[in-house]
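---------- Forwarded message ----------

FYI, see the DNA topoisomerase 4 subunit A record below. Original note from H. follows.
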Amino acid sequence: MGQNLLPPGGGDDDSILPVDLKAALEERYLAYALSTIMHRALPDVRDGLKPVHRRIVYAMSEMGLRPNSAFRKCAKIVGEVMGNYHPHGDQSIYDALARLAQDFSQRYTLVNGQGNFGNIDGDSPAAMRYTESKMTAVSELLLEGIDQDAVDFRDTYDESNSEPVVLPGAFPNLLANGSSGIAVGMATSIPSHNAHELCDAALHLIKDREATVEKLVELYIPGPDFPTGGIIIDDRRSIIESYRTGRGGFRVRAKWEIEDLGRGGYQIVVTEIPFQVQKSRLIEKIAELLLARKLPLLEDIRDESAEDIRVVLIPKSRTVDATILMESMFKLTELESRFPLNMNVLSMGRIPKVMALNEVLKEWLDHRREVLLRRSRFRLAAIEKRLEILGGFLIAYLNIDEVIAIIREEDEPKPVMMERFGLTDNQVEAILNMRLRSLRKLEEFEIRKEFDGLTKEKTDIESLLASEEKQWQTVAWEIGEVKKKFAKATEIGRRRTQFAEAPEADDAAIQQAMIEKEPITVVVSEKGWIRALKGHISDTSSLTFKEGDGLKVAFPAQTTDKILIITTGGKAYTLGGDKLPGGRGHGEPLRIMVDMENDQDVLTAFVHEPQRKQLIASTSGNGFIVPEAELVANTRKGKQIMNVSYPDETKLLVSISGDHAAVVGENRKMIIFPLSQVPEMSRGKGVRLQRYKDGGVADIRCFAIADGLTWEDSAGRTFTKTRDELAEWLGDRAGAGRAVPKGFPRSGKFSG
């Protein structure tokens, strides 16, 4: 007969239940999210392991792969983990196992690998059938006491076996090895730390439970200790803040040194790179930047690494400053990277929580005390059972002949012995299970010796369980033993990551170093189009412009220069010489490159010189002195320098030189006054330079009164008036002035 494939029920719709789709989806999504958080992505604060890592370590322990035993194929271990504990893909298990064996990924490896387990260049490990592994001393510490009821066990996925909920964790694994993972709606990122420092901090917390993060950082844990070394350049204050909140990050730089090549030449050798940076990808990226001419100070890069890291950087010339070269490298490449801190862990194995440094250590200490109590109770129960049996052995020894006779003669010796000697069931069972030869050889001395020893141990354990102080003393002793094993004096325990302050390098110099220095000619048209022609061009007559447009200003510059643009609205904009459009075509409108108002035009453009000062003046004759450094704008919006309102606008910008200013109005009147009468400001309307009835300012020239005032007429002839000849025009600012001297250009400008 075939199977009955009809649905249950009578075929009506009675068994179909309506379900709200939204509620059903929400429920399933929440179940998935919680599953990911609890059983995949977040580590337990107590042993610092995610479920897959815990299962790998436990499976290796069950297989007897102790540090002093032989290696076993990884395929065998993966199969064991997958079959018994972790019902997921074998590749994901092997990837997790391989990572536990990588000394460049783990500060203290949990797996001792034999074979190709990948490298810092990002190469994958060999297939699991080729590699072998076993536990390390760290794994052993994590498992210490697991067979002594130290932790709870739960059923595995198929209920055929059991697995630990958490490991006893005698090693501060969470902070020592760090962790990273992405769950649903939350993530974790914890850097590795030095075990010696963690033990010191834990011992301090045992003495002073209220110790602050500040104190722990100041005294014991200065910061992370990455497997690959590097240099942390964060200041102490930001490190403390990160540890206090459980969120933040650490800036890690590569470690480098200068190798002298003689005769003034040198090369830079990088010996340590930031954590989780692939060396091959880093070198590729630097090579790409070299080809793109983004690193003008660098000539070449070579990878001379073997077992250790040795990346050689060759400067362009021996005159290149090594610090500036490296600072430009740090800005553009992963030679400097940021490792995020997000101490989001499962508190007590159940609650996801972002914890501070002291909270993480406290939870680990509380777990260690709980493990101690459970192990002590387990040992106490074992002692009590053994003492009971030893008491039975003692009675048996004192009545050895009678016991042997009962065993020989009676069909059911057990109840007879219990009645005759007052023994318990366990005691009789132990006597009956002994070989007769052993029974005859029982010695009172040996029994009493073992009995006394166990009685003393029982008393010690009982006093330990009764005293919290003794419990913490024992925990402190255990931590002290771990500290000895991973002391800084040992190779594994030495601190790898150092701390330093970033050198005070000039930002402008670094910025300049990142741009290849080339000569250009900047051309700005009247309608506000800008371009940069290669080389310095003196003859601008051949330049072409759009119809109705013409040349406004053209000047030589370098690609490393800052170009300042001043508008008639009194605004200043800054563009990098390397960012300007090329000389082909007509360039690009300035309004695309900066946020320039439609009603404003370009007044002038020039190369920025930080030490220079400028006299800025409006049409109405107001003005002030502004340092050129104040004209630099860091955003597209620019910087308002001169406050003007329609119809008034910014008319002139004149470089300050000498000690006097000559101002000519459109009414052809001129006044000369000392520059000391003009205030220096970074922004404002300015003060009156010359007074007018009608019109406004035509031109201004700054000069040294001792040298006299010079101007050129339209024919190119030069006129100079000495101080004595200028006496009638000398006065105070804001005066009306007098008619210009004979021979002054008709244009009303000093340049003809």
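H. also flagged this: The mean pLDDT is 88.
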